[in-house]
Amino acid sequence: MPTTEFGDALLQTARHALARAFGRASAAPRPHAALDEHGASFVTLTQRGELRGCIGTLEAHRPLRRDVEENALAAAFRDPRFAPLAPAEFEITRIEVSLLSAPTALAVAGEDDLLQRLRPGEDGVVLAWRGRRATFLPQVWESLAEPRDFIAALKQKAGLSAGFWADDVRISRYTVDKFKEPEPQRTEGAS
Hints:
The protein is α+β, with helices and mostly antiparallel strands.
């Protein structure tokens, strides 16, 4: 399990990348040797508990520091579900960094077998079929707790119908260690 010190370094790396993009002063992230190793991450941005952007990589192919920086910028400015983050949103945006394990192929004998073998709350899932691919981080189980609902929504994210299944669907799963900035403290009289 990565340390809190490592988690702080990941969050500082993402925050620093966004601050630079907005031309804001920001202390350099605390150095950590693990940031120089290859790793795969997702950066999730939220505002008042609502999703504001989420982009990441599934396979480690570059140093983790660069992966986190690039994914933070992509989540802020290139998530097609949202308008680019505006400078006024910087202070109210919270960052979560998820560090992914390597995806492991899961051989299944159909959708019912898949649904029985999933580990709700633990598994991140990648679904791929003929050039289409989508993933949900394990955090998505918080809003889609039933395996059937989770997989139906994942299929729709991949551009497939919720009821779709084919024998050549490929499934992989992974786990994450996640680190999240705290929500800002509310002051007396704040609404």
